[in-house]
Write a structure and sequence with these properties.
By secondary structure, the chain is α+β, with helices and mostly antiparallel strands. It is built from 19 helices and 35 strands. It has 6 domains: 97 residues, no CATH class; 62 residues, Orthogonal Bundle (Arc Repressor Mutant, subunit A), CATH 1.10.10; 166 residues, P-loop containing nucleotide triphosphate hydrolases (Rossmann fold); 81 residues, Elongation Factor Tu (Ef-tu), domain 3 (Beta Barrel); 104 residues, Translation initiation factor IF- 2, domain 3 (Rossmann fold); 97 residues, Translation factors (Elongation Factor Tu (Ef-tu), domain 3, Beta Barrel). The two termini are 64 Å apart.
């Protein structure tokens, strides 16, 4: 039975009748003290009591205003003599009085407990002082009488001691944290990398609090570890503060920020990047432009290909960058370098808009650059220019003759038809953009590509964006620095200077800079070293963070599957649909012991970056209807990477299964060769314990391992010491034949035991 009226009355410390009366007033039908009370009934009773309490308070206030209630000086109420309280008023006042009494009682007990604790501490301190004083007195009595102490000196020493203790106390309390009265929201400026402890100091909290937040975010870091800027901002916001990204480039700002150009900006040549789907004619178009506009017009032609060159078009000049690739293009734009002004989007007239075409459009839009479309392969049958325009219009590239602002020029890169019109369209687009730059002052720009030449050292191809680069200038490229020893133009000639929009090679750098890094000419060697050291330290911090994150990621990923084999794959295919199909098929390959991890999957040929990624991640490279470029081939050959081409998905899947199976350890299989039953046991002075056996199944071989079974339970595993047939040593005894068996280092064989001879074989696992 549940809670009754009687039980609830005891809880409230009132009579049953009073509670029933109150319940009746609340609209409940209970009439006996044994009636059960539900939670809903309790809620109704308490609600009624609360309402009655409020009503009583209102009446008391009303009475007080009319002089019916007198307030005494000690805070007690004096009821008027003219009226008596009702039973319900008495019940409410009774409950409230009991609550107040209980609260006062609790407060008195707490105060009493605190007084007891203080008294105990005082008594303990007095005892310690008395004990210390007694020890000092005892020690003093044991000592010889000391000379009389000068009172003046004693007082002086006491004053100095007091002053010293007060100073020490002030210093100790000066650095203690004062508990804040309320939370203060702060603007936390987080640099690119920051130690956990330093971040905690900025927020005026303990480092452990930051570590807890990091652990909740899945980041395992101690107080002395560094975290990246994004993580630091998230931590600050999680703790209620406002995280602000701080561009920590004080050294660079101090030196590079002082570079001012006093000249008026002048018109510069446009910088062009050619993009498009694989096999749509990008390379053919670039080759035609280079040969007809550069090679034929230059004595001796191009001595070497440096990734960029300039093409004269009438009175204007166009700078082409032919080796950025999509990734490099995005990286340059992400770094804030205005590397490319216009993108020539090559679309095959017989193929139309393909996945990589869409990717190129997205890259160009994200970079905020203008687009000129070259509709290539107009010489082929099936070329449908209107269909191409319609497909591009669907991608928000509306041609000019359709009322849009995108120039679309039909060309044939193979024959050269329409190439001149394409270049004129590019020049017109650049005039509309009004491209300008400063020609006087210290040069600034971006690194297009770089290499280490065994004869010339570090070689970097630079695109000048502002100022003029001169031989002898002190230059900083990322963390590389040096004095410009030589400037080489796109035609192989040596130049004394390079103006904006010029793409040139330079010699003289200390190390090879990364592609996409910015370069800056500085005043002297001291400034160059300061910037280079600052950037080098930042690079080291990023590497440490990356290595820590990767190692932690590997730990968590491998947790619980330490023995699991993983085959890393880099996949490149001709179209996005095929790539998705292959990745989906590879997801089903593997088991509990081995699995597939697709490190990267993309569309287009296998590039140098793919080969470097395969080298870094220990991956195999799979190409589906694509091939690798020369730079990738060199890395594959020099680093002995695995590269294979396929044109049928099933063949690709079979190869992956075979390679994954090769990673698995072979399965050890046991095969029972023969079983013999022990009939009798003999003790031989020469051979020790010998078991007389009857071969029941198979054959007993002397050179194979054996087991001894008793009641079908293995009690020993070893090898045979001897195998005899009558008095002759034999190597094999077949089924149905008796023999004598001696087991090495085992003397507990009994009649009825069975001797089992077996063999182990390795079998390769297959997925």
């Amino acid at each position: 039975m549940g809670l009754t009226v009687k039980d609830f009355a005891k809880t409230l410390k009132i009579k049953d009748d009073a509670l029933l009366e109150r319940m009746k007033a609340a609209g409940l039908s209970h009439s006996k003290s044994t009636d059960e009370i539900t939670p809903a009934d309790k809620l109704a009773i308490l609600k009624s009591l609360k309402e009655r309490k409020n009503s009583s308070a209102s009446s008391v206030a009303s009475s007080s205003s009319s002089g019916g209630v007198r307030v005494k000086s000690k805070g007690t109420l004096s009821q008027p003599t003219t009226s008596a309280p009702s039973s319900s008023d008495g019940l409410t006042d009774n409950i409230e009085a009991k609550r107040q009494a209980a609260a006062e009682n609790l407060k008195e007990q707490q105060q009493k407990r605190e007084d007891q604790i203080k008294e105990a501490i005082r008594i303990k301190q007095e005892q310690q002082q008395a004990s210390k004083k007694a020890q000092q007195q005892k020690f003093a009595n044991q000592q010889k009488p000391q000379p009389r102490i000068n009172v003046k000196d004693q007082l002086s020493r006491a004053a100095k001691d007091y002053s010293r203790r007060e100073t020490s106390f002030n210093e100790a309390t000066e650095h203690q944290f004062a508990k804040p009265v309320e939370f203060i929201k702060r603007d936390i400026e987080v640099p690119e990398t920051i130690q956990v402890g330093e971040l905690a100091k900025l927020m005026f909290i303990k480092g452990g609090e930051v570590v807890k937040v990091l652990m909740s975010m899945g980041v395992a870091a101690s107080i002395n570890d560094s975290i990246d800027q994004e993580t630091g901002i998230l931590v600050a916001e999680e703790l209620g503060h406002n995280g602000i990204a701080l561009i920590d480039s004080s050294v660079e700002d101090e030196i590079i920020g002082n570079i001012n150009y006093s000249d008026t900006p002048k018109t510069r040549a446009p910088v062009i990047t050619v993009m498009g789907h694989v096999d749509h004619g990008k390379t053919t178009l670039l080759d035609f432009i280079r040969k007809t506009k550069v090679v034929d017009g230059e004595a001796g032609g191009i001595t070497q290909h440096i990734g960029a060159y300039q093409v004269p078009v009438g009175d204007s000049v166009i700078t082409f960058i032919d080796t950025p690739g999509h990734a490099a293009f995005s990286s340059m734009r992400a770094r804030g370098a205005n590397t490319t002004d216009i993108v020539i989007l090559v679309v095959a007239a017989n193929d139309g808009v393909m996945p990589q075409t869409e990717e190129a459009i997205n890259h160009a839009k994200a970079a905020g650059v203008s687009i000129v479309v070259a509709i290539n392969k107009m010489d082929l049958q099936g070329a449908d220019i209107e269909k191409i325009k319609g497909d591009l219009a669907a991608k928000d590239l509306t041609p000019e003759d359709w009322g849009g602002n995108i120039q679309m020029v039909p060309v044939s890169a193979l024959k050269g038809d329409g190439v001149d019109k394409l270049l004129e369209a590019v020049v017109l687009e650049s005039e509309l953009l009004e491209l300008k730059a400063h020609f006087d002052g210290q040069a600034q720009g971006v690194v297009i590509e770089s290499e280490l030449d065994k004869f010339r050292g570090a070689v970097a191809t630079l695109l000048v964006q502002n100022g003029t680069l001169k031989v002898g200038d002190m230059i900083v490229c990322g963390s590389a620095l040096g004095k410009v020893k030589s400037i080489i133009g796109s035609d192989g000639s040596k130049l004394k200077k390079a103006e904006p929009s010029f793409a040139v090679e330079i010699l003289g750098l200390s190390t090879v800079p990364d592609a996409g890094e910015t370069f800056q000419v500085v005043k002297n060697d001291k400034e160059a070293r300061e910037i280079a050291e600052y950037r080098e330290n930042k690079i080291k911090d990023r590497k440490v963070l990356k290595q820590r994150d990767e190692s932690l990621g590997n730990i968590f990923e491998s947790m619980g599957q330490s023995d699991k084999k993983v085959l890393n794959i880099i996949l490149k295919s001709d179209v996005a649909g095929t790539s998705e199909a292959i990745v989906s098929a590879l997801a089903d390959v593997g088991n509990d012991d081995a699995s597939i991890k697709v490190v990267a999957a993309g569309v287009g040929g296998i590039s140098e970056s793919d080969a470097n990624l395969a080298l870094a991640t220990e991956s195999i490279i799979l190409g589906f209807n694509v091939r690798s470029d020369n730079s990738a081939k060199k890395i594959v050959e020099s680093e002995d990477l695995t590269l294979s081409y396929h044109s049928i998905i099933y063949e690709l899947i079979d190869e992956v299964k075979a390679r994954l199976s090769g990673l698995l350890d072979p399965i050890i299989m046991e095969e029972i060769i023969g079983i013999a039953e022990v009939l009798e046991v003999f003790n031989s002075p020469k051979f020790g314990q010998v078991a007389g056996c009857l071969v029941e199944e198979g054959s007993i071989l002397k050179n194979k391992p054996v087991r001894v079974l008793r009641d079908d339970v293995v009690i020993h595993q070893g090898e045979l010491d001897s195998l005899r047939r009558f008095k002759d040593d034999v190597g094999e005894v077949k089924s149905g034949t008796e023999c004598g068996v001696g087991i090495k280092n085992y003397k507990d064989i009994r009649p009825g035991d069975k001797v089992e001879v077996f063999d182990r074989k390795e079998e390769a696992q297959s997925i």
